[in-house]
Fold:
Amino acid sequence: MQDPKINLRKIAVIGCGFVGSASAFCLMQSGLFSEMVLIDSDKDKAVGEALDISHGVPLARPMKIYGGDYDDIVDAAIIVITAGANQKQGESRLDLVNKNVEIYKNIIPEIAKRLCRGILLIVSNPVDILTYVSLKLSGFPKNRVIGSGTVLDTARLKHLLGIHLGVDSRSVHAFIIGEHGDSEIAAFSSANVSGIPVSEFCELRGFYQHEKQNAKIAEMVKNSAYDIIAKKRATYYGIAMAVKRICETILRDEKSILPVSSLMEGAYGIRDIAMSMPAIIGKDGVEMQIPIALDEGELEHLQHSAEMLHDVMEQIDFKYL
Structure:
C-alpha cells in the first residue's frame, strides 16, 4: 500500500447495481476517500450513479466522484467488485456460480493487465467461489484478494443475539464462519458478551434452552437474505455497510479482526479454498487468519462447508485459471 503509484485516498467500484450503488453512497458518506470511480458494463449507468451521488457532496465532505473505465483504476488503493447477476427469489448463492464466474473472467483480467497494486475486495455472490477465482485469475498475492465473506452474516448474528439478550449488539462478540451461504456456521462455542460466554450470559438473563435458541438464531441469520429478497427483491444496505467497514479497516490500518473470505492453507484441515474465518485486516489486506476454538460439531460443520465449496468448484472449468 506504500507504492507511490497508489493513491491511498482513491477507491474504485466495479458494478453499479443495487449493491454497488449503495456501497458507493455509503463510501461517499464515510469520508474515507477523496476520489471514487464507478465502472459498469453500462457506462451511462455508472455516469448517472456518479452524478446522483456527487450532488450530495456539498452536504457531506469534498470528494471527486465520476463514471470511468478500467484505465481509471490503476492507482486505486481498493477495488471493490460488486458486478454480477442478481440472486433471485428461491435461488441459492451457489446457484449463481456459473453466471458470475463468466462475468469475472472478463473483469479480473482487465484489472490484472493494468498491474494494479491495490487490494481487491470481492462482494459479488457466491463470494467465496469468486474470491478464489479472482485470486487465481489476477495473480495477486493472497493477502490482497479479500471477499466480504461473512462480515454481514456476523453483524446479523450480533444483532439477533443483542435483541435476544437485551444488550447492545456491539457488546456481543461472535462469528459466522465458513461459506457465506447455506452451509455457514454460527460459532457459538467461542461467542461471548463482554467476555462472558454467551451460554452463561443467557442464564444471567433468564434463558436456559441454549441449544434450541442458538439453532433458531443461526437459522434466522442464514435465511436473512432470502427473507429480504422475498420482500423487496434484493439486499443492499447491510452489505454496503459491511463494504464500508472493511475499507475503513484497510485504509486506517486498524488491524481489526473481521470474518472475511480468504485463502485457506491448512487450518482445520482445509486448504485450496476461500472461505470466511476471522482475520487481522490492515493496510496490506489479510495479515493472518485467527484460528478460533471450535467444538467438535462446529469443526465438523466447517469441514462440511469446505467440502460443499470444493464440490461447486469441481463444476467450474478451471482451465482458464
Q: What stands out?
A: The chain has two domains: 7-147, 151-320. Residues 7-147 form a domain with the Rossmann fold fold (CATH 3.40.50.720). The mean pLDDT is 93. The two ends are 26 Å apart (CA to CA).
